[in-house]
Amino acid sequence: MPKIIVDGQTLEVSQGENVLQACLNAGLDLPYFCWHPAMGSIGSCRQCALVQYQNEHDTHGRLIMGCMTAVTDGARFSMDTSNAVEFRKAVIESLMLNHPHDCPVCAEGGECHLQDMTVMVKHRDRRYTGKKNTHRNQYLGPLIHHEMNRCITCYRCERFYQNYAGGTDLGAQASRDRLYFGRQTDGVLESEFSGNLVEVCPTGVFTDKPFLADYSRKWDLQSAPSICGGCGVGCNIAPGERYGRLKRVHNRYNHEVNGYFICDRGRFGNAYVNSQKRLNYPGLQMPDGRFKAIDHQAALSRAAHWMKNKRVVGIGSPRASIESNYVLQTWLGAKQFCAGFSEREGALTCGIVEILQATRAINPSIKQMESADAVLVLGEDLTNSAPRVALALRQAVRNKSIAMAEQIGIPEWQDAAVRNLAQDALSPLIIVSSAATRLDDIASHVHTLAPNDIANFGDVLIEHLRGNISEDVDIINIADCLMTAKSPLIISGVSLLERGILDSAAGLAETLYDHNPHTMLSLCAPEANSIGAAMLSHTDNLSLAQITERASDIDVLVVLENDLTRRLDPTSMQQLIASGTTIIALDILENETLNHATLALPAASFAESQGTLINMEGRAQRFFPAFKPAHERQPSWQWLLHLAALDGHGELSKIIHFDEIVHACAQQHSPLARLTEVAPDHSFRRHGQKIPRQTPRYSGRTAMSADLSVHEPQQPKDLETPLAFSMEGVNQNQPAALKSFVWSPGWNSNQAIQKFQAETQKPSVGVSSGIRLLISSGKGIPHTSTDRTAFAQSNGWQLIPIQCLHGSEELSAYTDEIAELAGDPFVALTESCALELQVAAGDGVILSSNNVNLSLAVKIVARMAKNCIGFSAGYTQTLSLSAGSHVQLQRDPNWRPFKPLVIASDRRPNAQLRHNRHG
Amino acid sequence: MSQHLIQTDVKSTLSTAEIAAIDAEIAHLPYTSAAAIDALKIVQAARGWVSDECLIAIAKHLDMSVEQLEGIATFYNLIYRQPVGDKVILFCNSVSCWICDCDKVKERISDLLEIDYGETTTNNRYTLLPVPCLGACDRAPVMMVGDDLITHLDDEIIETLFGPNQQAQSD
Ligand code: SF4
Ligand code: SF4
Ligand code: FES
Ligand code: FES
């Protein structure tokens, strides 16, 4: 390990890193702006200056930029010499010339890297008295607020947006002190990762727009470590609450999963927690169909009465926690339980688990995917189905440029140099899909095939790799890319609901593994706990079809956080409702299933409860409540424990605490044995104290509800977790799974995370990146080449589900801003197909088959498999459409495009906010 | 892709000659987008400035986003994103010219044409812009009017060029 000397202190540093990293890793406070741990250095802000000395006799030295200087053994530096100190101070002063004095009205204030750095260099008095530059701000859509005057021209936004995330519609304009960062004209930002600008920008230029409309300072937020429920990736997030409302979501660093970035669904799609559609009290359906609010005692005794000596069946949910699903299944028994998947999803998700339990290939973490030097994607538009994975692949394709740079001795963090050298040289990314994907711009090969042809394509590739040489040039090329790669990665998923694709992805990985043990295989699961629900499932379980077919044999049906209209076709749903079975439904928001329930029970959301979710890799991660559920809301596992106890379940009636569920579940399901290690249990203490959810500066605790009562309310107790609803406690050196917020003296922004990492870009100290529960036996998957019939032209168009970041996911779609971005339900066509139908973007078409007749918007896409058309998957209006079925299309002359874009966050009336004030 | 990118038709915005000239540049370059500056210059040479419509059309032709091209267009002072007069006066106010009293000459121009830096005469004939050094310090003070370099500036020269007689004549 090389050593460097900084102000007389010898630091052990890592080979190849830069001096700024080395100083930060050693715990020194060297200010910086433009360097970012995940994006490297460009040396544009000049803030990280030090003095470097030639040797021990050199007393003069010269100024260098820490972020642009590689460490070399024995090199000598000074941070503290007056030269360096004055220089850094002058840099801040010059950045401040045009920076407004508007911290009190800036949403960045209190978690601003610029504030932190300004204080750090001790720049206090503003000597400049001239006019400041002012800019016009742009409308950037409902998610991001723009305040250009605050820019310090560090270029981080452009580098994240374009270079890291592949966006093209935001960048630097003009030069000198007229520099401007924005779009060419006002308009909604196109990138699925735009929200990261809020954290990447070291000042208040880009801020969280919905948060701004209902603002609190970071120090006034009560936060908890949490997991995004938006998809199967399981990014780590930190939701912040005040006044009983979820105010905002920030990224929470997890080295193995999301690192420093999350997608816009994860950041902005959680305001449904504050929705008017939330259930506050148990609701009993009256004969006239309306619901009457009752208290929980009354609700439970009703339920007990119905259940007495009756056949009770439970339906679990892939979006509910392991613990809630476990309690329901344990209470009613595997034979009276259904995991809650639709038939097709269930088979596919269990298929993923089977494959990942047997494959010899590596099942990579999201971070590991970035190391792939050739990637084959089968049947997924990852940016919309597993967004954070797509962002990882954007880094993976850069491995070629990094290798080129390495060859001539340029370190990876020399970002501008590496990009300059490589230009558009990218590692191979092969996309075989039914429709255009948002990674097409960086793909080396793109193939457009109908779902079962994708599986066939995979099989031909397998055969070719096994020596049955194909004559197809594409197959030969692609095989070459995969065979010559050091770490090839095969990714697939369930978006197209086609089992064959999963099998051929698995087969490909197996075949490649024979040549290369570094082969990786990753399969994307759709929901936050899809894998968990599949791992809990049992061969004795009922399927949804068995339940709906024999619904009249069931007396009481308990539905856990599951809107069955999203799983069942309309006829089956009707059948279930018509059976007259008593339905007890637990959920967070009103939905169609609740509307048909006899008793609706209000469940706590992810932000008000705790549980474990298992992500697509099989990683179990725990989320904790940021605040107490209001009214009669309870976490589902608590409702279910009450119901089980009333039903006289021996074992469950002894359980009171969450941890006991975890232990019982770990004991009974051997694959879940390590569930207890996912996070420390409620008895965990740091120096005898709990971990605070509130920052040391949390204000107004005793005054917050003074408008309701002058009596000082007691802080809610938390008996279930090691966290406290309080600022008291020790927020130091706890496992990362228990980190509610990041803050360190002098570091108020999220950049404080480096104070909790052994090294920047490395795991946090006291690591817990979750526990991998899905472990492969490594026995491999025997390949059986199924002879799939190629897609035969039948009458009509084959329906391809199109996943949409905004709109396809159930809960986030209840958030105003997301609903606005989701737009109208649509049919996706290519230009030529639109021509044939005589429609254009913005027109409407009538889509019809035997049992559906829908009028949908036309969306033009760049490519679509022959004889196929896409439809917006997961939109409530298109739930009745079934992937793979055939439909007719015709122009809808009466179609009117829906509402023009309205800014949801600007539209939300203040009155409503006040109304929500106390939950 | 942005909506305006989709809607703009390259062929109806740029002339055949412009497109041909841009394509000739592209033919020499490894990346289409590397022709960005040349393309902007070609269009500006033909039209005097680069309008939003042209910017969008060029971006589309070069397979770039409008933001990326705008970044380049606005980076360079001599790519005009606003209409300019028939001739642009590039007036040097850098050090050699400054020593030779260029400020006075500039005053004279402003008086005669009634424009300051960044402005265009009402008859649309001239736009006045400052430049830092035209590389003709030995003949300071200097300026360019259109493509002509005019050296050793003094009141007389300014008068002949921009004086009332001159203006009336060519009107
Ligand atoms: S907007 Fe923010 S991130 Fe972008 S250059 Fe300015 S200060 Fe940096
Ligand atoms: S990628 Fe998935 S888990 Fe991650 S933030 Fe987005 S929706 Fe949430
Ligand atoms: S952080 Fe080193 S120059 Fe900006
Ligand atoms: S300073 Fe005017 S031409 Fe050089």
Please explain how this structure is put together.
The complex is a heterodimer of chains A (919) and B (171). In chain A, helix 9 packs parallel to helix 23 (636-646) and helix 14 packs across helix 15 (415-422). Helix content of chain A is 27%, strand content 17%. The longest helix of chain A is centred in the middle third of the chain and has 17 residues, at 499-515. In chain A, a hairpin with a 2-residue loop joins strand 1 (3-6) and strand 2. Chain A has 29 helices and 36 strands. In chain A, strands 15-14-25-24-23-16-17 form a seven-stranded mixed sheet. Among the domains of chain A are: 3-96, Ubiquitin-like (UB roll), CATH 3.10.20.740; 358-525, 3-Layer(aba) Sandwich (Dimethylsulfoxide Reductase, domain 2), CATH 3.40.228; 797-904, Barwin-like endoglucanases, CATH 2.40.40.20. Chain A starts with a strand and ends with a helix. By secondary structure, chain A is an alpha/beta fold. Chain A is globular, with a radius of gyration of 28 Å. In chain A, 54% of the residues are buried. The model of chain A is unreliable at 901-919 (pLDDT under 50). With 171 residues, chain B is of the alpha+beta class. Chain B folds into two domains: 3-75, no CATH class; 87-170, Glutaredoxin, CATH 3.40.30. Chain B is built from ten helices and four strands. Chain B has helices at 3-7, 10-13, 16-27, 36-47, 52-61, 66-75, 95-99, 102-113, 155-162, 164-170; strands at residues 87-92, 126-131, 143-145, 148-150. Chain B has a four-stranded mixed sheet, with helices on one face. In chain B, helix 3 runs antiparallel to helix 4 and helix 4 runs antiparallel to helix 5. The longest helix of chain B has 12 residues, at 16-27. The termini of chain B are far apart. The A-B interface holds A 162, 168-175, 180, 183-185, 187, 190, 423-424, 841 and B 2-4, 6, 30-31, 55, 64-68, 70-71, 74-77. Bound molecules: iron/sulfur cluster (2 copies) and FE2/S2 (inorganic) cluster (FES) (2 copies). The site of one iron/sulfur cluster has 13 residues of chain A, from helix 7 and helix 13.
